[in-house]
Amino acid sequence: MSILLTSGSKVIVQGFTGSEGTFHATQMIEYGTKVVGGVTPGKGGQTHLGLPVFNTVREAAQATGADTTVIFVPPAYAADSIIEAAEAGIRLIVTITEGIPVADMVRVKRLLKDFNTVLIGPNCPGVITPGEAKVGIMPGFIHKQGRVGVISRSGTLTYEAVDQLTKLGLGQSTCVGIGGDPVIGSTSLDILRMMMEDKGTDAVVMIGEIGGVMETDVAYWVKEHGVKPVIGFIAGQTAPKGRRMGHAGAIIGGKHDTAEAKMKIMAECGIHVVESPADIGATVARVLHK
Length: 290
What we know:
Layout: E1 11-14, H1 19-31, E2 35-39, E3 47-48, E4 51-54, H2 57-64, E5 68-71, H3 75-87, E6 92-95, H4 102-112, E7 118-120, E8 126-129, E9 133-136, E10 145-152, H5 155-167, E11 172-177, H6 188-197, E12 203-209, H7 214-225, E13 230-235, H8 259-268, E14 272-274, H9 280-288
Parallel strand pairs: 1-2, 1-5, 2-4, 5-6, 6-7, 10-11, 10-12, 12-13, 13-14
Antiparallel strand pairs: 3-4, 8-9, 8-11
Helix pairs in contact: 3-4, 5-9, 7-8
């Protein structure tokens, strides 16, 4: 099984005819994702990559039955693109765009409360259900179908963890890059809950970062409600207090935001904490084969 994305998901691409949209749509199609069209305002009626182009998401959804979208729209227009997709009834919105103003995302979060949709991102690699479909920019070839869920704030560390798992023969059920911005659509806990309920997921890898409380929220929830093993890693263990490291959301605001504090709480709550990213795969293998 999987969460969020299946081989039956019908995907459109917002920013379809741009260079990024074109490149990654091609990759998604080659992976087997059911891409059914795209949206570029002013280019409706044209054909791109052999698929129809529409002026609006509503037109695309009505014509194709699309339930999923991936957004490659410039930062200044991305928030409106997310809202447009939600208003058109899209169930899953994956926003790859980075650099969206925080104020725009605060507005988006507030408005999305009125819609039955899941937002992943922004500033994320996307979602992949190995062997079925991928919506995003991750390299499909490193993934293997299996039963380990992966949640990550970091794109590159997602790829590192997945590569380790695959080389150890441990396939993945679903991998979700939630994004590294201060305001994102779905938190680690949102995705973890889905994976805990997924009958096709036996264990979950959570890759977190310094800054914010997402990982501690997960830890406390796992302590009370966890029914599957969780393996956790926190990036930024050597980051100095008050300095942003890579992602806009990765900034230590206080003693509880540090990697050390998060790792301590996670361990106390029963999460299998990994100190080095090089040990993620081996730790998952050890936990699953006890």
